[in-house]
Design a protein that fits this description.
Blueprint: E1 2-3, H1 6-13, H2 17-20, E2 27-30, E3 41-44, H3 47-59, H4 68-81, H5 85-102, E4 107-109, E5 118-123, H6 130-137, H7 142-148, E6 157-158, E7 163-167, H8 174-192
Helix pairs in contact: 5-8
Amino acid sequence: MDGARLINASVALGTSPARLVQWCDSVSLCLNKGLGAPMGSLVVGTKEFITRALRVRKVLGGGLHQAGMFAAAGIYALDHIAPRLSLDHTNARAIAQSVSEVHSSAITVDLKGVQTNVVLLHCDNIRVNAKKLCQRLASVTDAESEEMGEQIVVMMLPITETTVRLMMHCDVKKDDIKAVIKKLKYIIQEYDNMMYLEYK
C-alpha cells in the first residue's frame, strides 16, 4: 500500500492504521506531507521483504549518513503531529464550506469529497481554468489590496485543466485559514462577475 496519507485516513475513519493495512503485504508511510517531518518514509513488510528493500536501496544509492536528526523529526511527527491531524481536516472542511456557501457558478467544491485534509476546487473552464485560478491566487492586484486592506497570497496546485488541489498541513494556522477564505471569496466574486460572452 502507498500509505502517503495513511494516518489522515486513519483519523478520518476513526480506526487504527494497523486495521486499514491488515491485508497488505507491504506498506510505505510518508513522514512529511501531512505529518510535517522534513523528509523520510517508513517501509513495513516481512523480514525477507525488508532485507531485499535494504539491498535495493543500497544498490541505488539511497543510503543517508547521519540520518538520526531526520529520524528524530519523524518520531516527533508520529508522537505529536499525528494526534492533531483532525484539526487539518476541520480546516479543510471550513475552507470547502466557505466556497460552497458562495454558490458560485465559476468555482465549485464537492463537500462530500472533503473527508480529510484535501480540498478540490472545480473551475468552469469558461471564465477560469485551474492554472489561471492558481496564478490569480498567488498574485495581488492594487484594487484587491486597497479593498481588502491587506495582501494575501495563497499557493495552490492545478492537478487537471479544471481542478485545483488545496492541502492542509500542520503549519497552517487559524489566521491562515481566515486569510485563505477571505482571498477565495474575493476572487470567486471576481470570476462570478465576469460575463460569459467575454470568454466565448
